Amino acid sequence: MLVKLVTGRGAKVVAVPAKAKRNTRQHSASSAQPRRCADIQPATSSEAARLTRQDWINGAIRKLAQDSVAALRIDELASDLGVTKGSFYWHFHSREDLLDAVLESWRSLMVTRIKDLIGPANAAPLERLRNLLRIALAPQPDVPGGPFELTLRDWARRDVRVARLVREVDAERISFLEELYRTAGLNAAEAQVYAIAQMSFIIGSHTTTADSTDGTHAQRRRIAETLFIPNSLAGERKRP
C-alpha cells in the first residue's frame, strides 16, 4: 500500500506493508469494543425464590468447615448450591458481606439459639448440661468447637475484628455455662472451673479426634459426662 506523506521538504510516497495495515485495522476494531467485565449471570426468579439468604450462609459454613477463609470462592459455592453466581448477588453485595453474615450467624447460634436448643430455661439444669454436651459433640460442622469454629479460630489469628468477636463469644459462653452450673447447685468458684474446663474439652476434642465414627462420638460423650456432670449433683449417672 502506498501512502503520500507531506513534510517540510515536500511530498514523499512511502510503502506501508499490508501486514501493518491489517494489524492497524485489527487494533482499531478491538479498541472500539468496550472491555467486558466478568460475566455474572443474573439470578432467575426461581433461583431467588428457592435459595434464601440463610441457605447461602449455611452453604458458606459447610464450605469453611472444610477449608480456610481465603479458599472460599463464590463461584464454587454457587456451584455447590446448584445456582448461578447471580443468585448470590440477589442476597449479598459482596463476598465480605457474606462473611459478615456468617460471623453474625455463628454468634447468634453460640450465645442465643443454643440456649433454646438445650431445653427451656425452667428445665432441669443437669438435663440442659447433658443436652449441651450432646449437641457440642455431634458430628456437625457448626456445633460448638466443631470444624467451622476451628476454621474461624484460625481466621481470628490473622484478623483483629474476628479475634475480638471470638473473645466476646467465648466470654458469653463461659458466663452461660457458669450460670448452668450454679443453677445446678455448684458455688461460683466451682462453676467457673467446670465452665472453662468444659469449653476447653469441647474445642480440644474436635482437634484431637481424626475420625468421626459413631463409636468415637459415644466415647467422647461418656468422657464428657464423666468429667463435666459432677457426682455431687448427678446422683446415679445416666448412661448415654
Give me the secondary-structure category.
mainly alpha
How many strand segments?
Answer: 2
Strand adjacency order, main sheet? 1-2
Averaging pLDDT over every residue, what do you get? 79
From the N-terminal CA to the C-terminal CA, the straight-line distance is 92 Å
Could you say which overall geometry the principal axes of the C-alpha atoms support?
elongated
C-alpha-based Rg, rounded: 30 Å
- Residue share in helices? 55-70%
Q: How does the major sheet shape up?
A: 2 strands, antiparallel
Low-confidence stretches: 2-9, 11-43, 236-240
CATH structural fold name of the largest domain? Tetracycline Repressor, domain 2
Q: Give the SSE order as H and E letters.
A: EEHHHHHHHHHHHH
Q: Beta fraction of the residues?
A: 5-15%
Domains (count): 2
Number of helices: 12
